[in-house]
Amino acid sequence: MSLKKILHLCEKHGFVKPLWHGSEVTRLNFGPVGEFLVNNVRQEWHYSSVVNRDENFYPVQSRLNRSDGLTNDFDGIHETYDHIKSLCNGTLPFGIAQTIADDNLMLKNRLQAEQPHQVFKPDHQTFLRSLLFVSPNDGRQAFYTWQQKRKMWWRKAKDGRKQVLPFLVECILSLEIASLVFLCDAFLENSRRQLLRLHRRLSPIKAGFVISLTDSTVADRLLDVARHLSRSLRQNGLTTLLLSDIAKKSHDSQLARNDEMGIPFTIVLTDSTLNDGIIWMYSRETTLKEQVHISKVPEYMTLLVKNY
User: Fold this and answer.
1) Looking at per-residue confidence, does 67 or 227 come out higher?
2) In terms of domain of life, where is this protein from (predicted)?
3) In the beta sheet, which residues pair with residue 174?
């Protein structure tokens, strides 16, 4: 698998625009579709690190520059730590989910030795850091529990009324590198097609539209139906791709484009849709189509995407 081939496909469809310096990618400028992906990665991290937790976790935004002089795990979060500790009445466990804009890669350079054959060396990264403060008695169990989901390491801090050092379980990831890894992992090529098999929850666009016609006189009416469906899906929080030329381009070429963009579902409207209200829902994963009534599409697609 060629990284340049993957980046070419991603650039073609507005995911990223890589800036090369020799053989190294020095920066990834995310395009309009890529911004959806980055936001989805951030949302999934926020859900798993803040919302879907037994402990109380609180989000915080930070920015690092050279004047910050980052030297240890608590630089930049002392005040936040004190506020959260007070909010929790000094009772452990509690956690901080920190989004760090690291303009000079100070955090990366402190945490990770430079790899000799690293291809992607961005000059800016956004780090997502999870910090869980627990009692020393619970630290080991907390570590092993969290370790099942992420690669982690633990440090020490301070606990309530006791002058002891509790365990700190920490996990850090780069938002930019994570997004690139998901794109590389999703890339698939065979003799028939190229596609991005992005997880449905990460896919920047959840649904595309195709109009397959035998009677060109109903094109405008079907386009109105597509607009109505697109609006309904967006109201349900699902992103869609609705282009003005979907009745003009071939059915197969549009499905191929949507596969390349990682769109998990394509709604195919036909002449008979105006009579019976039935659309065909094409799956990127199986390449099969199933019949769904228009009135059921928003609810059905929401279940397919959000419960996957």
Assistant:
1) 227
2) Eukaryota
3) 127
